[in-house]
Amino acid sequence: MKRQPRSSPRSAKPLRTVSIIGTGSYVPDKILTNADLSRIVNTSDDWITTRTGIKERRIAAKEETTSDMAAKAALKAIGQAKISAKEINLILVATATPDMLFPATACFVQKKIGATNAACLDISAACAGFLFGLEIAQQFITSHTHDTVLVIGAEKLTSITNWTDRNTCVLFGDAAGAMVLGPSEDPDRGILGASVDSDGSRYGLIQIPAGGSNKPFHADLDLAQTRMTITDGREVFADPGHCKGFSYLNLASMTCSSAAIRLMISETPCRAIKTNPTGSRSFTGQRINPPAFEDASWIVQDSTNHGQVK
To answer: The whole model's pTM is what?
Structure first.
């Protein structure tokens, strides 16, 4: 007897749109300015500002973990969403600096915020991780698998920074941002989607060589191998119109406060894409800061996990 395929209990339900219903962020108190860095490595405020636009970065306390920062951002997002932590069905934490290899950092966040009904999952996609998280969350909500998903981007990048390398130490700091997603009350509004892609052939551009199964930790391991390395800065930060290395989120018709977009821009390297009346898209070619995002149709994040504009 031929076995009949089982139908999904969700298959009869219509797809639904997804909105951002709460946002939150957290930055540590300690500030490291460009002038401070100039006393650590051979650099200057002018050198850093002209190349990156960065004036200062936040530094987490030694005992402060990624999950500590993530939990603080999450509680703010939950408060803005006016929900209980117990209403969260899924926690997604995008991070390249987890508290430990396992269990997932999301599990530590769950405990700290009291989200006892949530499944927990980490996403390892570097700079593009938060957008991957939004896209994953959207699928769970759209398909009626979950109703409320917490997406967090959190990093303690100073813990993997080589403070003797001026090409990398000027770029990174510590912070967390969070968004609570839920079904949209208006079917014509919501997140339209994210375009995500990857190019594994470019893995060597920015990496931490050691710490995985390919090069495990051991007593004689060179400490530099456990720190972030950028082999070709020009390629990593090249204009996205010519270099694949980006993920981007369509903001058109998004039910979202401007605070949410400001949060996304403040926490990650971003660029803008504008949509002209014909519907085609073009990069502005400039890194963006509020309020410039208000003219953008898409937000772009730099990474070797990327989305490419056709």
So the answer is: 0.74
